[in-house]
């Protein structure tokens, strides 16, 4: 067995173990909620039954993780969003049918958990229809991808120049801001950043 195959199998086994641990208290019958605050809002990539605007308290949306692959490269890393501690975050909660939970969680692990940048947690998500308990991917400040405190000039320069497997970092930032506005979410800080990066804000999709 090659080292690459062994590593892949090991990663799959670790992901399965992590998913099982997180779902240890799930009864297998109830639907489950997943909270999105970045690209999950406009490209969830999984089956969902309902979505609601939701607020998670104690954390805020921040361009704080270096991306060396999907939205950047080793020579010109981009920045992607994480939920950093402090404040609150307005996003979207997706309800996943019980029958889809296992498949959806494994899809999410492949997408969000390959490099240890996030920590999955169950948190209270406040919605207009009441509070739900949702899966939230929080920033792992101890990971090697954490950007820490960087200047605005450094941040904007990185976003402008970075291109990765999934496209330009600038497109990712703009698309996230547009998706938030399309949902009726006003992230003034992100909106101001987009203005500085590319001029006038583009109309939000209907």
TrEMBL record:
Enzyme class of the recorded protein, top EC level: lyase
- InterPro entries xrefs: ChaC, GGCT-like, GGCT-like_sf
Establish whether keyword Lyase is in the entry.
Answer: yes
Q: Annotated Gene Ontology MF terms?
A: glutathione specific gamma-glutamylcyclotransferase activity
CDD domains, per the entry: GGCT_like (cd06661)
GO CC annotation terms, alphabetical: cytoplasm
PANTHER family (UniProt xref): CATION TRANSPORT PROTEIN CHAC-RELATED, GLUTATHIONE-SPECIFIC GAMMA-GLUTAMYLCYCLOTRANSFERASE 2
Q: What is this protein called?
A: glutathione-specific gamma-glutamylcyclotransferase
Q: State the organism of origin.
A: Bordetella ansorpii
The organism's taxonomic lineage, starting at the top:
Bacteria, Pseudomonadati, Pseudomonadota, Betaproteobacteria, Burkholderiales
